[in-house]
Every structure is written in C-alpha cells, then in structure tokens.
Amino acid sequence: MDTTQLLKGVLDLAVLAVLKDEDGYGYDILRRLREAGLEEVGDASVYGTLRRLFAAGLLTTYVVPSESGPHRKYYALNAAGRDQLTRSGKTWRSFASTMDALLEDRGMAA
C-alpha cells in the first residue's frame, strides 16, 4: 500500500499531535514527524500544512532569533488547535478501530 496517500489524509492530525506538548519550527517539526516513523513525509508537505493550519486559526506563530542562521518561525497550538486535535484524534481512533476490525474479520490482522 502506498503510505504517501495515507499520509496526505492524516498530516494535519500528525502535525497537531507533534505540537501538542512542544512548540516547533518547520524543520524541527519535520524531524519529529520522521523520528516518529513518518519517514516519507516531504518538506513541502509539512510547510504547506503549517501555513494552512495557521491560516485556519489553529496555530499561532512567533519568531526566535538564531545565532546560526536566519530567525526561526515557531508554531504553537492555540485553543482552537487543541480542540481540533481532540476532535480529529477521536475521528482517527474510530476509523482505525473500524479498519482493525475489518482486517481481523478477514484474517488479515498484523
């Protein structure tokens, strides 16, 4: 199965989840996603997702000076982003549970 197609559908949720406990700048968020097991995620996809989530009012930003290069734009969850993370997390768990049940019923469980 092509995991890149699955990733497209859940990248918003993955980015919100990565920002749940700690703010981050673009490359840091990308690194955390990859370390979590989403190695296929692309740079442009993450940066586009961050812009979209910010435009939707789910993230706030602030700039931190960097001694080793340009200033870094950090992203943080705001109240609306936390609410969206909760709602999307429930939706994901329900969907994943349904898929697990379907696969188990057909003898395809992992």
From TrEMBL:
<dbReference type="InterPro" id="IPR005149">
    <property type="entry name" value="Tscrpt_reg_PadR_N"/>
</dbReference>
<dbReference type="InterPro" id="IPR036388">
    <property type="entry name" value="WH-like_DNA-bd_sf"/>
</dbReference>
<dbReference type="InterPro" id="IPR036390">
    <property type="entry name" value="WH_DNA-bd_sf"/>
</dbReference>
<dbReference type="InterPro" id="IPR052509">
    <property type="entry name" value="Metal_resp_DNA-bind_regulator"/>
</dbReference>
<protein>
    <submittedName>
        <fullName>PadR family transcriptional regulator</fullName>
    </submittedName>
</protein>
<dbReference type="Pfam" id="PF03551">
    <property type="entry name" value="PadR"/>
</dbReference>
<feature type="domain" description="Transcription regulator PadR N-terminal">
    <location>
        <begin position="15"/>
        <end position="86"/>
    </location>
</feature>
